[in-house]
């Protein structure tokens, strides 16, 4: 019985001409543009909150450029460490 159900599902998948999203009637809740704008807004809000805390402590504020450079440096270091571990295992 299970094999029959699986077989029928495979036949439907094989002969259905639409996309899988159409078959399931799936629609994304938000567009890619909205998601990208949300990410930009989130980064800006987090940076503003961090700068508010830094002002309270008397520390210098950070710009988005400084933050991006720091993240890039950390990512490069993470990649270097991963490569070192990968080449050491061989």
Give an overview of the whole structure.
This protein is an all-alpha fold and 90 residues long. It has helices spanning 2-15, 20-24, 32-57, 64-89. The two termini are 48 Å apart. The mean pLDDT is 88.
Short note summarizing the structure:
By secondary structure, this protein is mainly α.
Q: In percent terms, what proportion of residues is strand?
A: under 5%
- The count of β-strands is 0
Q: How helical, in percent, are the residues?
A: over 70%
Instruction: Determine the N-to-C terminus distance.
Output: 48 Å
Q: Spell the H/E element sequence.
A: HHHH
State Rg.
Answer: 24 Å
User: Which structural class best describes the helix and strand composition?
Assistant: mainly alpha
Name the average pLDDT.
Answer: 88
The general outline is: elongated
Low-confidence stretches: none
Largest sheet: none
Number of helices, where a helix is a run of at least 4 consecutive DSSP H or I residues: 4
What keywords describe this structure?
single chain; 90 residues; mainly alpha; 4 helices
Topology:
Layout: H1 2-15, H2 20-24, H3 32-57, H4 64-89
